[in-house]
């Protein structure tokens, strides 16, 4: 990642037909990357040309969840992204040694994001998904500056405290004048073997965020779906094959596919 980006960003051009979605969350560990890989795989399976840009410097997990085993290659001054499950993938994790903790500050992050957008050979994408670091930080603002048309998808858990933090992540869009396209509630009720439902993280968080963002944005911000807690979903992430591909019949996969179809 030496030197700065020299090219312009194709997705920022007025004539760009690529829809860019930023997947945002208030805090880490709520399933932002899990949602990102499954949406991407589902959209690619529909025949769309899809890319993921993993900008979550603090918790990059896209390469593992997508089973990426190769590194990006260079062709003259462009970076060629690995392709897994039909999705082009670039991650900050591909540019740091081992599992080194990334202690990048704002300006460096901004530059890396700019370079990933401009110097990666994405081709003619239908959809680009950005996995942002949690919180309301620099990367969200950088995204708004670099691609103003980015639409934001907020991921939260059902927990009220988590919902409050997620609201703040969504509310930044008000300042950057970006559209919040919807809310995804993840880690909703766990289905027990006897058919009962265990609400491990409580209930209602997704609706709270949806209602609150609808009020603050002055436009509908729908709850697009609720994804149950499911062991298969965690295992799919560890195995590097998105659940929508490995177990499309499962409740979580169905919820994720239906969210993808609504984008
Ligand atoms: P984030 O990107 O928000 O940090 P991750 O997508 O990495 O979160 O998810 C955190 C952990 O929780 C991962 O191990 C993931 O496999 C697991 N996970 C996410 N959503 C679910 C779910 N609905 N059911 C079970 N495990 C989940």
UniProtKB/TrEMBL annotation:
Protein name per the record: Iron-sulfur cluster carrier protein
GO biological process terms on file: iron-sulfur cluster assembly
Family affiliation: In the N-terminal section; belongs to the MIP18 family.
Keywords attached to this entry: ATP-binding, Hydrolase, Iron, Iron-sulfur, Metal-binding, Nucleotide-binding
A GO term, aspect molecular function: ATP-dependent FeS chaperone activity
Annotated residues for binding of ATP: 26-33
Organism: Nakamurella antarctica
Record function comment: Binds and transfers iron-sulfur (Fe-S) clusters to target apoproteins. Can hydrolyze ATP.
Subunit comment: Homodimer.
